[in-house]
Amino acid sequence: MPKRSPRSAIGVAVALGLASGAALAAGDLSRQAPIEITVDLGSPGKHEFTPRQLRLETGKLYKLVLRNGSSDPHYFTSHAFSQMVFTRKVQVTQQQSGKPVTLAEFKGAIREIEVYPGQSAEWWLVPIAAGRASDLRCDIKTADGKSHAELGMLGEIIIE
Ligand SMILES: [Cu+2]
Predict the structure, then answer these.
(1) Environment of ion ligand 1 (residues, CB < 5 A)
(2) Of 8, 62, 72, 134, which alpha carbon lies 20 to 30 A from 54's?
(3) Number of helices (H) and strands (E), helices first, in the chain?
(4) 134 CA distance to ligand 1 centroid (A)?
(5) pLDDT tens digits for range 83-115
């Protein structure tokens, strides 16, 4: 067995230290404690996103709660946003005996979520690119043929 000199042992320790430091810096960004942001999709009699502008930062985990308290279904659609985020999961939960119970989890790239009246969905995601997604909209049509977007259901997501 070759004898290792003290000098090379230090070299190995430094190399290992650098390697584990790099691993810590990278880590699994999708396993952080999430920052929760709630977006209201419509409100009784109004087709709008509240807030209509979201600001997120790259590298942080967000739990985007899409809550529909209105009496119409609504979409949360932004092709640009979908290209700038990594989706950990989309989750649907339900209150059962006062506790939230997860009904389903969806994994993989998400482009659009529809939330039914009185329901909500959680989009867990990590923004990976900075930019401005100005195409947030709901394209559901009302009885007279106008889309909710035409009635003002538009929004913007800024990732810094
Ligand atoms: Cu809508």
Answers:
(1) 74, 138, 140, 148, 153
(2) 72
(3) 2, 11
(4) 16
(5) 999 999 999 988 899 998 999 999 999 999 999
Instruction: Report how far ligand 1's centroid is from the alpha carbon of 137 (Å).
Output: 8
Domains identified in the chain, total number:
1
Distances (CA, A) of 106 to 62, 117, 121: 16, 20, 11
Polymer length of the chain: 160
Distance 140 CA to ligand 1 centre (A): 5
Cα gap 138→48, rounded to integer Å: 9
pTM: predicted TM-score of the whole model, two decimal places: 0.82
Q: How far apart are the CA of 80 and the centre of ligand 1, in A?
A: 18
Query: 78 in a domain, yes or no?
Result: yes
Structural domain boundaries enclosing 72: 29-159
pLDDT digits over 22-69, tens only? 445 568 899 999 999 999 999 888 999 999 999 999 999 999 999 999
Residue 35 lies in a domain: yes
- Whether 3 maps to a domain, the answer reads no
- Cα 138 to ligand 1 centre (Å): 5
